[in-house]
Design goal:
The protein is an alpha/beta fold. It has one domain. 47% of the residues lie in helices and 19% in strands. The chain has eight helices and nine strands. α1 runs parallel beside α4. It is globular and about 55 Å long. The relative contact order is 0.13.
């Protein structure tokens, strides 16, 4: 994939507060819709503080759109298929990953079509498996693996953990993010060492090392102007 030029902006306190409130609202709506078959991840750390929202490599607008995409896609899929499927929708920079289990190729295709028609979706990767629904034990194990990978990324000095989105489904780990090729390879290596990981799939949007340096400059704390 060619290097991309994401629209990176300088942190702005007013914008950060506004996006944090908006993200919190989307998360609340997601929680209220918890009975749907489609599952959507909660960016708990990002919603909790404006600081993390600012540290994300996506624009604040993209962050909000990603949460909106996840909510709308989950709602529409759950309304169309209230029973018999297990679908997770994860969006990063408007690129959507669909994982889980469905019972037929027709349902798999229809779920993808529903997600593609959600506003602002740029691309969809459909990783739905044609099989019976995974067990609660399997899903709990996947959640544990995801947590361990995120913790390992935090402990890895040459990785910026907030640049990655991690999804685990039946032992397969999917990595999304705006990263350099070097960061992507390093993250995949870290994930592969975690117990319970069967395979690592990289779904990155790559940026150049120069773009990463520019991002670091924009994200650096600004010293107050001297009077």
């Amino acid at each position: 994939m060619n290097a991309i030029k994401p629209n990176l902006i300088k942190p702005n306190l007013i914008k950060i507060n506004a996006i944090t409130k908006a993200l919190a609202l989307i998360t609340l709506l997601t929680l209220l819709a918890g009975g749907l078959q489609a599952c959507f991840p909660l960016m708990a750390a990002g919603v909790a503080t404006g600081t993390l929202a600012a540290a994300d490599r996506r624009t604040t607008g993209a962050q909000l759109e990603d949460k909106t995409i996840e909510f709308k896609a989950g709602h529409r899929v759950g309304k169309r298929f209230p029973d018999g499927i297990h679908v997770n929708v994860n969006s990063y920079n408007r690129h959507v990953l669909i994982t889980g289990e469905v019972l037929s190729a027709d349902i798999k295709a229809e779920v993808e079509s529903i997600v593609k028609n959600v506003e602002n979706v740029v691309a969809v990767t459909n990783e739905l498996e044609l099989q019976g629904l995974s067990s609660l034990a399997t899903r709990s194990g996947d959640a544990l693996v995801t947590g361990k990978i995120k913790a390992s990324m935090v402990d890895t000095k040459d990785l910026f953990a907030n640049a990655f989105k991690v999804t685990t489904e039946r032992g397969t780990v999917y990595l999304q993010g705006l990263v350099t090729e070097r960061e992507g390879e390093r993250a995949a290596e870290v994930a592969s060492r975690i117990g319970g990981v069967a395979k690592v799939v990289k779904l990155f949007e790559y940026i150049s090392e120069e773009e990463l340096k520019r991002l670091a400059t924009l994200s650096a704390p600004q010293e107050p102007a001297k009077k």
